[in-house]
Amino acid sequence: SCPREMGELCNLRYLGLKWTWELKFIAEGLEKLTNLRTLHRFVVCDDKGDTKGCDIMELKDLNKLQGELSIQGLGGTRKPIVCARNAQLLKEKHGIISLEFYFGITGGVSEQSNDEQSGVLDALEPPLGLECLEIGDYKGKMPVWHLNTKYTKLHSLKLERCHLWEKLISITSLKVLNVINCPALCEIASTPALESLKVEECCSLEQLPRHMPALKWLDVALCDSLEQYHMPALKLLM
């Protein structure tokens, strides 16, 4: 765990939490670290005894963050939609180029409804300069910003256990796409720059995109409705 006193380190610029998989609790107070450039991992926490845990609102004033940020435990956030809107990831945090949104919570099941999780993800609209995006353990619908065609730098997208996600639009800059255990997915639009495609446990998907001239690597498994496909330009087929 990270103690409450950490919030007093007001000049801190680097907080390396990238490989801290055993970290389950961050006390409130992170919002005071307004000079922070690198965070890597942010865990949304329930309270622990008399100590309040970090909520997504703590990110609101961390406008100097750069690089990659993984936000985990979103399914446990209190006042989920209001807190997410206050985080202002799109408006203020243009230095972030890689984002992960994971809704799973440690040791339990999220009490949020599908609509609440949809509201959270809609409110956490990423900056337009985003290059990599991962979303996991998500039971809401596709966010409105998914239809925004201005994400011209996005080159890597991963969706894992996104149970109501129905389709993926064409993203002209996308090179790597991984879609795992998304049972409602029924359409992947043609993506001309795509080089690597992994599709697993997508039981509603009936066909792959027809136009993927740059595709070099394809891995398909446990997609029972998928038609036969022919990709002559492939270098590796799993």
From TrEMBL:
It holds the Pfam family LRR_R13L1-DRL21. Transmembrane segments: none annotated. InterPro entries: LRR_dom_sf (IPR032675), LRR_R13L1-DRL21 (IPR056789). It comes from the Eukaryota. Residues 56-181 form the R13L1/DRL21-like LRR repeat region domain. PANTHER family: LEUCINE-RICH REPEAT-CONTAINING PROTEIN 57, NB-ARC DOMAIN-CONTAINING PROTEIN. This is R13L1/DRL21-like LRR repeat region domain-containing protein. It comes from Nymphaea colorata.
